[in-house]
Amino acid sequence: MSSAADRIARDIPRKAPGIAMKTVACQLAAALLFLQLPATVAAQQTDTMRCQYGIVSLDNTMPEVIKKCGPPAFQDRREQTRSFGQRHNRSYDTVTVDAWTYNFGPQEFMYEITFHNGRVARIDSLEHGY
């Protein structure tokens, strides 16, 4: 008389050897994609940024940021028109938007500072630098 384990093993259909390898390969690919998700996550907004000579915070001016952090690695400037008010009573103004990117090396996060008319309006923490 055979044991219960032998009967169960006999009743399980045998899989083709290639199917097990395909399953492992799919699981490995899914794990690799999951591990790369943090690299594709959007920027994280913050209120401050630490630099060598001080802390940058919202409403600081461009000269203050340069004094605390030095020159940025990248700069971008554009003009943006904003509208205010209701549909029939709108007013418009133009704001100068500067985006400065600071790269503090591979052990630190990069930061992007957005200025509106020369004052810090937003600070974003990006991925690790290089």
Sequence-ordered SSE layout with sheet pairings:
Layout (H helix, E strand, L loop, with lengths): L3 H8 L5 H24 L3 E3 L1 E4 L2 E4 L4 H8 L4 E13 L2 E14 L6 E8 L2 E10 L2
Antiparallel strand pairs: 1-7, 2-3, 4-5, 5-6, 6-7
Task: Write structural notes for this entry.
This protein is an alpha+beta fold. It folds into two domains: 4-39; 43-128. The protein contains three helices and seven strands, in the order ααβββαββββ. The chain has helices at residues 4-11, 17-40, 62-69, and strands at 44-46, 48-51, 54-57, 74-86, 89-102, 109-116, 119-128. A five-stranded antiparallel sheet has the order 1-7-6-5-4, with no helix packed on it. The chain has a two-stranded antiparallel ribbon with strand order 2-3. It is flat and about 85 Å long. The mean pLDDT is 82.
User: Helical element count?
Assistant: 3
N- to C-terminal distance: 68 Å
**Helix-and-strand structural type:** alpha+beta
Detail the poorly predicted runs.
none
Number of strands: 7
Mean pLDDT, rounded to whole units? Answer: 82
* Helical content band: 25-40%
- Largest sheet entry: 5 strands, antiparallel
Shape: flat
Radius of gyration, CA atoms, in whole angstroms: 28 Å
Q: Helix and strand succession? A: HHEEEHEEEE
Strand order of the largest sheet: 1-7-6-5-4
% residues in beta strands: 35-45%
Please indicate the count of domains: 2
